[in-house]
Write a structure and sequence with these properties.
The complex is a heterodimer of chains A (296) and B (287).
Chain A: H1 2-53, H2 57-63, H3 75-82, H4 86-117, H5 123-131, H6 142-151, H7 159-183, H8 186-194, H9 199-210, H10 212-228, H11 231-236, H12 245-255, H13 260-295
Helix pairs in contact in A: 1-13, 3-13, 4-7, 4-10, 4-12, 7-10, 8-9, 10-13, 12-13
Chain B: H1 2-28, H2 46-53, H3 55-87, H4 93-101, H5 108-118, H6 125-132, H7 149-173, H8 178-186, H9 191-202, H10 204-220, H11 223-228, H12 240-250, H13 254-286
Helix pairs in contact in B: 1-13, 2-13, 3-7, 3-10, 3-12, 5-7, 7-10, 8-9, 10-13, 12-13
The chains are: A mainly alpha (296), B mainly alpha (287).
Chain lengths: 296, 287
């Protein structure tokens, strides 16, 4: 009797387990289908631009923006680069982004080090005062800065963007560098002091080599923000030769309003540098995003 | 000595480029400066009187509030949903994550351009799709229609912000101890119950961050609006940031524009004070 009921029980259990397994497998399959569909829809905007950038006007008017191009041709890229003045915009963007990235990080290293290792009375308040700058909309200083750079004769040069990006980068650079230096044991600094090093030597020879990962995080973040900026060059530049790529993109949109392919090519060119950073340094970029956001 | 040396340049720059101009905005808001001439007159609080009686300002406030509400709802829910899915052991999770992160590294200028094409009335993907699935009645010139312009721009913006929300929630999820969710399951809680009573309360710090970012970014929303609609048609997609730009740099009412920026500053200040209080409260909670 008991044997029989046990056997029956086992069989039910087995069937139950199989059903459970099947259910889990279906749920997983559905999840993958859902995710893949979602990713597909999510990447459509990007795909559309890339497809368009390879198509001729005739192809677009025949098949629309969202069909496959007949062949891989780079004429749109050539036209954007040479005739659309995109090479000038790109050079300008690099001339702004690289120095602004380097200097904002350099200043962040200095302030971050002070706030973490050389605290003084009121340093905490000063730290919050600087970091708070991260949260304010840039609109609130637009007009005075416009007047300032006009007065000192820097309007319509690349200088205002470099200066403003360094200043506005200071909050995030200070925040991340202070948090990083706080994780470096104070004993290292004390050992260096005993060996006769001054603060400048400690920062340059001891701390800086240790902080390469933090510097990489900041470099990816700052490069991306500054490269992608649109507002400052819109306010501070006027002539075509001083445009950075993001403003140039919009200026050219009027000029090439019907040449969708050329516009697509320009959008792709404008995105390549940050995409390269994203692809090769994604780890640092994402860490920077979370650190910057969560600790704020 | 070294402290002063280290702080001198950064602080000087910060004072000259950020703090000084901020104070100057207050000063200009009391003038009628036109942006060209060097001179200007003091007009007292006239600019502020004008701000609060200007229907276009009310319109910009309303649009910014709509933006804020959607900016809170969509990245929080979608970002959290995606983070929860991808936090589980999903094969190829890293590839999925990368694809959702990707829009974050794109410029809002490029994103605006791309979505401008999606909404294009004749060839745009949206209208093509609607026609394709038999919903042709819904097609319209999305960005040229005052009823849909603002929402269309916000959707494009959300495309980028969902990834950002996901990043922050994923970071938050790694700090939720597995033992806690397992304990909840042993106690008989199903997935949704443990999510609601264990995981989501523990994600509160991340949620505060995502909400704060959404609010701050909606106050900053300029690039994508400027590129897609310039605030139009008929100011239907004007935000505070584009309204301020228009009054100052297109109509050259720099005094009036300064008054708008002062109001913007006041709103930002309230948000930031609230945020820092929340963060402080959270820090005490987890000490």
């Amino acid at each position: 009797m008991t044997n029989v009921s046990l056997a029956v029980g086992n069989a039910t259990l087995e069937r139950e387990r199989a059903r459970e397994q099947w259910r889990q497998r279906t749920a997983r399959a559905l999840l993958y289908i859902f995710l893949t569909a979602l990713v597909f829809v999510y990447s459509l905007p990007g795909l559309g631009v890339i497809l368009t950038s390879f198509k001729t006007n005739a192809e677009i008017s025949r098949g629309g923006l969202w069909s496959m191009p007949g062949e891989l041709r780079f004429t749109n890229y050539e036209e954007a680069w040479v005739e659309g003045n995109v090479h000038t915009y790109t050079v300008n963007s690099f001339l702004v982004t690289i120095p602004a990235t380097l200097f904002s990080i350099a200043l962040g290293v200095l302030t971050g080090y002070v706030f973490s290792k050389l605290p003084f009375r009121g340093s905490e308040a000063l730290f919050i005062f600087i970091v708070a700058g991260m949260f304010f909309p840039p609109q609130i200083v637009l007009i005075p800065l416009f007047r300032l750079f006009n007065t000192v004769g820097l309007y319509d040069t690349l200088w205002p963007m470099i200066i403003v990006h360094v200043a506005f980068g200071l909050p995030i650079c200070t925040l991340l560098m202070r948090n990083f230096f706080s994780t470096v044991p104070t004993a290292i600094r004390e050992a260096a002091i005993i060996d006769g090093a001054n603060e400048g030597q400690i920062l340059l020879l001891v701390m800086l080599p240790l902080s390469l990962p933090a510097l990489a995080v900041l470099a990816t973040l700052q490069f991306t923000w500054i490269w992608n900026d649109f507002l400052w060059p819109l306010i501070f530049t006027q002539s075509d030769n001083m445009r950075t790529i993001m403003v140039g993109l919009v200026t050219l949109r009027g000029q090439y309003s019907v040449a969708w392919g050329v516009q697509g090519a320009m959008a792709v060119i404008a995105s390549v540098p940050t995409l390269i950073i994203f692809i090769f340094f994604q780890r640092y970029f994402i860490r920077g995003l979370t650190l910057g956001a969560v600790k704020g | 000595m070294w402290t002063i040396g280290f702080l001198a340049i950064p602080l000087a720059l910060y004072l000259v480029i950020v703090v000084g101009p901020l104070l100057y905005s207050f000063f200009f808001s009391l003038t009628d400066w036109n942006g060209f001439s060097f001179d200007f007159n003091f007009v007292g609080l006239a600019n502020f009187q004008r701000v609060f009686s200007d229907p276009l300002f009310g319109n910009a406030i309303r649009n910014t509030v709509i933006w804020m509400i959607i900016a809170i709802l969509v990245p929080v829910t979608c970002g959290l949903g995606l983070a929860l899915i991808l936090h589980e052991r999903v094969r190829g999770a890293n590839i999925y994550k990368s694809l959702f992160y990707l829009p974050i590294c794109l410029s809002l200028a490029v994103i605006g351009q791309v979505w401008f094409w999606i909404y294009q009335p004749r060839w745009g993907l949206l209208n093509l799709t609607l026609n394709g699935i038999g919903l042709g009645d819904l097609t319209r010139a999305w960005l040229a229609d005052p009823d849909t312009a603002l929402l269309s721009v916000i959707v494009a913006w959300c495309w980028q912000q969902i990834g950002l929300g996901m990043v922050i929630f994923l970071a938050g999820l790694t700090s939720v101890p597995v033992e806690l969710t397992e304990a909840a399951q042993i106690d008989g809680a199903n997935y949704w119950q443990s999510l609601r009573h264990v995981v989501i309360p523990l994600l509160r710090p991340s949620t505060v961050v995502v909400v704060a970012l959404a609010v701050i970014n909606s106050l900053k929303s300029f690039d994508i609006v400027y590129i897609m609609t310039r605030g139009g048609p008929f100011n239907s997609s004007d935000t505070l940031a584009t309204f301020m730009y228009d009054e100052s740099f297109r109509k050259y009412y720099m005094g009036y524009g300064s008054a708008i920026s002062v109001v913007l500053f006041a709103i930002a200040l309230v948000v930031i004070a609230f945020y820092f209080r929340q963060v402080r409260a959270l820090e005490h909670l987890y000490d």
